[in-house]
Design goal:
Order of helices and strands: HHHHHHHEHEEHEEHHEE
Strand order of the largest sheet: 2-4-5-7-6
Shape: elongated
Radius of gyration: 36 Å
Helix content: 55-70%
Length: 385
């Protein structure tokens, strides 16, 4: 059987070059348009048509390989593109029925020629089946990954909408609280100037305590308004990572009064960062959760790992239940039986994610829980400019 092997090898080399160009283009830009996919399949159809023209046309048992392109097109392309591909492959089939280079078959008995044709059909069937399984398996995997990515995006969108509603509620409440707090501050100032309060040591002490608590409430309200209304970087303070951690630990210790609070600061004094109220609240939430689970002992560990600030909070409580570990960070995922519980870690996860960091939650082998947040120094203003 005489075949123009040089011409057919040239077509194979063309397909190899086409695949290399396609891989190079895909690595530069992963998004592939419908038109590009259609063009790729048409070039495959053209290469197959040339091969069939050089090897017997429609009499070649490999003519059914046109179905491979049609099936892939039906999966990957838009409707108009698929029908265009069907029309083009059908036209190529019709042309090859009368326009082709005949095979140089030796004069043999008809049964032998038929057996060769059946063997060719079998090889074509196995080849098409293997290629379809390979391609469709990869396409299905890509579709599953895409659906998973879309589901994750929808989840993040729902969480962000939830945070937005909470932020609007907190901002509105802060505005509403501003007026009564200012009124109370004025009344306390008037009381402190009255003789009956000024001359009584007990009443003066109680008024001073009330003023302290009122000032704290005003600070919290101001912090809520600043977080909801100002861009990051406005109203913040440039400091170092070590100073920030020490200040946060000291403020939390003074506010909560834990029985035993161990702070391990392994940070360099010269690592710059921006003291952000949201990050401070993240650490406060972690410490509050740890204190609630383990009133006798809480620890805070801070260090630098590969241009990242790592903050680890540990406790000696019951730890996380195994069935909850995979759901930690979702709203209202908690074992606490009270309204609104489960939002602390949810807010922690979202703030850290916004800063480009990660949160690792696990139970310690010796008992208790450990929550570690890792934040890139670049997001904290600590990158070298």
């Amino acid at each position: 059987m005489g075949l123009p092997l040089k011409e057919m090898a040239a077509v194979v080399l063309f397909l190899v070059g086409l695949n290399l160009v396609s891989l190079y283009r895909y690595r530069r830009q992963e998004r592939v348009t419908n038109t590009e996919l259609l063009l790729e399949l048409l070039l495959d159809v053209a290469a197959l048509t040339v091969q069939l023209y050089l090897s017997g046309g429609a009499t070649n048992p490999f003519i059914s390989l046109y179905l491979l392109q049609v099936i892939l097109g039906a999966i990957l392309l838009e409707a108009w593109s698929v029908w265009s591909l069907v029309a083009i492959t059908s036209a190529c089939f019709v042309v090859l029925t009368f326009l082709y280079r005949p095979l140089g078959l030796p004069h043999q008995h008809g049964d032998i020629a038929m057996n060769l044709h059946i063997q060719g059909m079998f090889i074509c069937f196995v080849l098409a089946a293997c290629l379809l399984v390979l391609f469709i398996t990869r396409i299905t995997r890509n579709l599953r990954e895409r659906d998973g990515h879309l589901a994750e995006i929808r989840q993040h969108s729902a969480e962000e909408q939830h945070i937005l509603r909470m932020g609007l509620l907190a901002s509105g409440a802060a505005h509403e609280l501003g007026t009564p707090l200012a009124t109370l501050s004025v009344i306390l100032g008037d009381w402190r100037s009255m003789p009956e309060f000024r001359d009584s040591a007990d009443l003066s002490q109680e008024l001073a305590e009330m003023q302290t608590q009122l000032d704290r409430c005003k600070t919290i309200v101001s912090g809520i308004l600043m977080s909801s209304g100002e861009a990051r970087g406005e109203g913040t303070i440039r400091t170092t990572a070590s100073s920030f951690i020490r200040d946060v630990a000291a403020e939390w210790r003074a506010a909560r009064g834990p029985r035993q609070f161990e702070v391990e600061d392994r940070l360099d004094d010269d690592v710059p960062m921006v003291a952000d109220l949201a990050l401070k609240q993240v650490i406060f939430n972690l410490l509050d959760n740890a204190l609630e689970a383990s009133p006798d002992w809480v620890s805070l560990d801070a260090r630098i790992e590969s241009d990242r600030l790592a903050v680890v909070v540990r406790d000696r409580g019951p730890g996380f239940a195994p069935d909850l570990l995979g759901q930690v960070g979702r709203p209202y995922t908690t074992t606490k039986q009270r309204p609104g519980a489960g939002l602390g870690l949810f807010l922690v996860f979202n703030v850290v994610r916004k800063l480009g960091g990660r949160v690792d939650v696990r139970s310690d082998g010796d008992g208790g829980a450990m929550v570690e947040i890792g934040l890139p120094l670049a997001a904290l203003g600590g990158a070298n400019e």
